[in-house]
Amino acid sequence: MTANNIYDVLVIGAGHAGIEAALACARMGAVTAVFVIKMESIGRMSCNPSVGGPAKGHLAREIDTLGGEIGYAADLTGIHFRMLNKKKGPAVWAPRAQNDRQQYSQLMREVLEKQSGLHIIEANVTDLIIENGTVKGVTTALGKSFYGRKVILAAGTFLNGLIHVGAVSYPGGRSGEPAAVGLSEALHKAGLKLNRFKTGTPPRVDLRTLNYNHLEAQPGDENPSGFSFYRDVTLQNLVSCYITRTTHHTQKIIKENIHLSSLYGGYIKGIGPRYCPSIEDKIVKFPDKETHHIFIEPEGTKTFEGYVNGISTSLPPEIQEAIVHSIPGLEQAVIMRYGYAIEYDYVEPEEILPTLETKKISGLYLAGQINGTSGYEEAAAQGLMAGVNAVLSLAGKDPLILSRTDGYIGVLIDDLVTKGTSEPYRMFTSRAEYRLWLRQDNADERLMPIGYKLGLVTETRWQRFQAMLDIKAREKQRLETENCTILNDLPEPVRYAVLLKRPEISVDELPRFGYQPPQDVTSDIATRLELEIKYSGYLQRQLEELQRFSTAENLRIPQNRDFMQINTIAWEAREKLARVKPQNIGQAMRIPGVNYTDISALMIWLRKHPASQKQTNKEEQK
After folding, report:
1. Average pLDDT for 376-385
2. Complete domains list, the chain, with CATH
């Protein structure tokens, strides 16, 4: 601890959001304290011990290029790697890793403990110290006060957390850990709007009790891909995952006992995730679907515990056992942990700015599930951005606000602050308008210059990135200017790039036509070249769209404007504009309920009031 318990930044919570926030702050030079209820829970993977998947893998790679930790930790502790959606277009290719739960948590704790300028404090924060609308610090359950110029709240599912199993309910942030009580009241007293969400986990089984003759093995990729750029991690597939399905008997058990579920028994009031529903929800909402996929995923190399992905439930223990035993391969499975649902408070995201600072409490930033999101990667992205912006604010510098054209991180935050969410928000590639540009393979080209400028990307990684760009540029020019030297079935010589645009020709087949890549052209560089050349027409059109999008994003809106006084805008649109307080025309266009005529009226008003526009630009330059 520091003298008088005074820090630059206080981070509440050491889950995926809190870790990234604390590390970013400390690495940017801020003296930081991170509070955790239980030291052993740092970086705990409360749900499935995995990182990545569609859009989530994109987020993990983007965080890595900005100097974050989740991708590197996932690579170091990964035990099963797969690139998903390879049969589809490159925009949706997504790396995914199954991780060793214990190793991941231990590694993250070690990283925090070794980080200079970062202090870990085991304490239950119960209140905020707020003076004249500005946060000054926090108070713990033991009555101890800590002071910070900025506070980042990354409480996960702990705010008034309530665990449900059948008719049994008890307070908890997750199984075996107490809920955070008091913070919700402090936020409510400060005027922030809170609501309730719910999420859940499936039972875990003893892998030694499964019948593998009834399971389909799902091995990792032969040449695995991870998340971290320029780190030289050797990726290893140490386990196999397995696939099975629910049966008609599974469906019958759930239907007959649905009234015993916490969710359908009326014990849970919060809204659950639409895209990761409980097995009860699946059976009720998709009655015509006879079976549902189940994935058996090992939790580590030194445990026999397996995660039964696909049957998240809040049914009583005896019903959970019946469900598990109705699934092929799990007939004799022994349950090591029962599934449960958890209900928790979150702050409605309309309360935060694109910097993740709250609108009503200066200096208070929110990150992770407290903003209504779900998932490790979504939380980590917010934590990183909250940490970066807190430190930039301390230094009096402009904030870092990524746009929807910069990355999935920009899409995530813009969706939250502009559209809000009525259910736990999960990132999908379909949420990104420019997903062919925002691929997982080029995250470094899009964002690493920003991470380097912030001081979060090391010089060694930066130089390796620059070397990659040089090699790629050299080879791209060669492919676009050199003709093939071996014709094979070609009627005449053509440039390699023209040949590569053919759907049936991949970069690996170019040697048949005389192309010999130098040794410094790695498989990663070769894949990038193939994608850029093969999809050049689509990319060009998307880049033109990006330019038009940027024009709208650059039309700033004065932040002191009272939208309710612009009579040419519809009343409903005025209310929504006043609530969201969009920073530019692009953001205003994405607010649900604000239509084209409202935007036209707003732009006319801006043209008639150039003085306000100039004032906004002056304020941004300060």
Report:
1. 98
2. 3-199+344-442 (3.50.50.60), 204-340 (2.40.30.260), 473-541 (1.10.10.1800), 554-621 (1.10.150.570)
